[in-house]
């Protein structure tokens, strides 16, 4: 089963969605997913150095008081799936192009899931600046990536343009929010839904795949929601 995950690493709901997807997959051990990580940029116009986290959340949520209330709610939701959100340690909200470059490199090495999870944890639980080249390199090396390959990827403008183009193509195809999960280019769901909801989607996709194997040519999938897989 192919699962495309459209996400951004500074999106707390994407982190929650990843945890819930993992819980759903644990409920269906027969499913052997091939996960592809697709870039999405929540804040494509952030300056290179990012902006202070306090400024970001106050603008996003409409004031400091409302931001504190919503962050506390996120902490409670995160705790229910094993995420120890620590928003008090976050100083900056960085642009995420370099983080997506690292994940793309990790995808080529078969380590994208590990690196994506590490980036989420670094930002949301450890207060590390995942827009910083040295922090990204440390995360990549810890996941087993080559320091030389990391340096090359983080300086690779062709990769950057490819990631931007892929995110733009996804938006033109109708991806207006994340997380978005697309299964076998045929079934999609947006949002960090409960594992039970995701399990139902997995079951629908599994049944469709079995029907296609036993009755080839009789199944017509819905319109694709996901751009071509990355090279």
Task: Note down, in words, how this protein is organized.
The structure is a single chain. With 231 residues, the protein is an alpha+beta fold. The protein has one domain (2-214): Glutaredoxin. 52% of the residues lie in helices and 10% in strands. It has nine helices and six strands, in the order E-H-E-E-H-H-E-H-H-H-H-H-E-E-H. The protein has a four-stranded mixed β-sheet with strand order 2-1-5-6, sandwiched between helices. Strand 5 and strand 6 form a beta hairpin. It is globular and about 55 Å long. The protein starts with a strand and ends in a 17-residue tail after the last helix.
Distance between the termini: 19 Å
Number of helices, counting only DSSP H or I runs of 4 residues or more: 9
Q: Tell me about the largest β-sheet.
A: 4 strands, mixed
Strand content: 5-15%
Record the strand order, biggest sheet.
2-1-5-6
Helix/strand class:
alpha+beta
Order of helices and strands: EHEEHHEHHHHHEEH
Number of strands: 6
The portion of residues assigned to helices is: 40-55%
| Count of structural domains | 1
Q: Radius of gyration in whole Å, from Cα?
A: 18 Å
Overall 3D shape: globular
User: Which fold does the CATH topology refer to?
Assistant: Glutaredoxin
pLDDT < 50 runs, ≥5 residues: 223-231
Q: What CATH first level would be assigned?
A: Alpha Beta
CATH homologous superfamily?
Glutaredoxin
Mean pLDDT: 92
In CATH, the architecture is 3-Layer(aba) Sandwich
In brief:
The protein is an alpha+beta fold. The chain is 52% helix and 10% strand.
């Amino acid at each position: 089963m192919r699962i495309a995950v459209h996400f951004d690493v500074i999106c707390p709901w994407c982190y929650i969605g990843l945890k819930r997807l993992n819980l759903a997959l644990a409920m269906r051990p027969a499913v052997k997913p091939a996960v592809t990580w697709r870039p999405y940029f929540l804040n494509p116009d952030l300056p290179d150095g990012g902006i202070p986290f306090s400024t970001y959340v106050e603008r996003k949520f409409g004031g400091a008081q409302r931001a504190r209330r919503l962050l506390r709610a996120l902490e409670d939701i995160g705790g229910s799936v094993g995420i120890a959100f620590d928003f008090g340690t976050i100083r900056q909200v960085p642009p995420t192009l370099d983080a997506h470059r690292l994940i793309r490199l990790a995808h080529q090495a078969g380590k994208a899931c590990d690196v994506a999870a590490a980036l989420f944890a670094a930002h949301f639980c450890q207060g590390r600046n995942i827009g910083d080249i040295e922090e990204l390199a440390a995360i990549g090396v810890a996941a087993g990536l080559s320091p030389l390959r990391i340096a090359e990827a983080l300086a690779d403008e062709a990769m950057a343009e490819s990631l931007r183009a892929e995110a733009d193509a996804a938006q033109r195809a109708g991806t207006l929010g994340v997380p978005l999960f697309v299964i076998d280019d045929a079934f999609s769901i947006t949002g960090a839904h409960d594992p039970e909801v995701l399990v139902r989607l997995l079951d629908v996709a599994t049944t469709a795949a079995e029907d296609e194997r036993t009755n080839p040519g009789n199944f017509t999938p819905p319109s694709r929601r996901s751009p071509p897989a990355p090279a």
